[in-house]
Amino acid sequence: MSVQSLTSSDQHAQTSVSFLQDLLRDYHPRAFDVRLWDGTVWGAEPGHPARFILELKHPGSLRKMFWPPNGLTLGEAYLYEDFDITGDLEAVFGLADALLDTQWSEAEQLRYGQALLSLPDEGN
User: Fold this and answer.
1) What pLDDT is recorded for position 88?
2) pLDDT of res. 7
3) What is the pLDDT of residues 72-82, one digit of tens each?
């Protein structure tokens, strides 16, 4: 699968999309869009209509969603409106299951942690 090239002048948007592209590189078909706070859209894989949209509300959204890595972080980020999901909510469960079932190597964990920590820790 080729990685889509997206253009954004916002460094945090670039880091966020790169993080997601790396995290989801083996998740297929990626039948959802990701929309960032600056209007950048990482579209679903070609040939797969978007079943839902993951909307990141601010530059620190991914950090709020995944850091610290525990069972509550994602739910808290949703409750505090760091991100939103529109569209087919049932389709999100496949993505959630895939993320929960993945066993990352120590190198991957370090890489993901560094990327998340490079993002702002506040909403704006």
Assistant:
1) 97
2) 63
3) 999 999 999 99
- Quick one: CA dihedral 122, 20, 42, 3, positive or negative? positive
Q: For the chain, how many helices (H) and strands (E)?
A: 5, 4
Question: What's the rounded Cα separation, in Å, for the pair 114 and 41?
Answer: 23
Q: How far apart are CA 1 and CA 105, in angstroms?
A: 21
Q: Listing from the earlier edge strand, what are the strands of the sheet with 32-35?
A: 41-42, 32-35, 52-56, 83-87
Nearest to 31 by CA among 87, 103, 102, 112: 87
Q: How far apart are CA 121 and CA 41, in angstroms?
A: 22
pTM: 0.88
The token duo for 27 is 């998740």
Full DSSP string of 82-115: SEEEEE-HHHHHHHHHHHHH----HHHHHHHHHH
CA 27 remoteness from chain centre: 12
H or E element in which residue 67 lies:
none
